[in-house]
Amino acid sequence: MIFYFSGTGNSTFVAEHLAKAYDHEAIRVDEWLHTGRINFNIDDQDRIGFVFPVYFYGLPHIVEQFLLELSITFEKKPYVYYIATCGGQQGQSIKKANAILQKKGLGIDAAFDLLMPDNYTRMYDVNDEQKIMQINQHAIIELKEIMHKIEQKEVGHFAKTGFPRILSAPVTLFGQTFLTKTKGFHVLDSCIHCALCERKCPVHAIELIDGKPVWQKKKCEMCLRCLHHCPKFAIQYKNQTQENGQYHHPVI
Ligand SMILES: Cc1cc2nc3c(=O)[nH]c(=O)nc-3n(C[C@H](O)[C@H](O)[C@H](O)COP(=O)(O)O)c2cc1C
Ligand code: SF4
Ligand code: SF4
Q1: ipTM score above 0.85
Q2: Which residues does the UniProt record annotate as the domain 4Fe-4S ferredoxin-type (predicted)?
Q3: CATH class of the domain comprising 2-175
């Protein structure tokens, strides 16, 4: 069983790749909001995985909520691996997840960070297709090495990045408090009223009113799925995103 969350497909790609290779079920954590499915029995499994993106050196809010609510029953503790997909710095996201999972008797045995294109285009530019392709190709090579360790059930903290809590925690707090506000979103006239953004938002923050997306929640995950998937690139955040392009993982 592999639990994952993804805004723009990086983590989906990784989770689905692992699920296919290991013939495991991949479960998107935001489905829990629709299905209520939060109890899992894994008696028949000797290995479970978690694949989540890093947000503000920490966990996406929905991931933290899911992990806190998650109830997993098992006869024997499975081997637990965790992959943090990130643009360059996982901060304390692995430690945060481990602290929650340990309380459920599911402490992480092997932790990895995996560098992938940074979809936070409020700060980063994704226009250079060549560079994006290279990062994704390198991620596939790294993923193979990660899978080798998982198959050997190697134990360790294999993440190459990480900040001490004193540096990460203020960024996470600031990000989750001030940088997840939806009032910064606006929609350009190029919108073709297709409602894709409404359908794709993992937390139902968007509703089409008179054919245009309107944010119904004051805060959201800030996963940028709506912005990156809009066929007309009509969703923007303040004046921060228009020059920086759109991204989603090429195979998703
Ligand atoms: C709101 C937000 C915050 C982010 N914060 C970080 C961060 O602190 N460190 C980092 O390396 N990448 C950060 N990123 C980049 C993502 O972690 C990275 O692109 C990830 O692979 C996206 O995965 P996904 O495509 O599955 O959503 C952030 C992205 C978003 C949308
Ligand atoms: S996805 Fe883009 S084009 Fe479609 S309704 Fe939303 S903003 Fe408009
Ligand atoms: S409104 Fe956009 S950025 Fe916010 S959670 Fe929904 S899809 Fe993600």
Answers
A1: yes
A2: 182-211, 212-240
A3: alpha beta
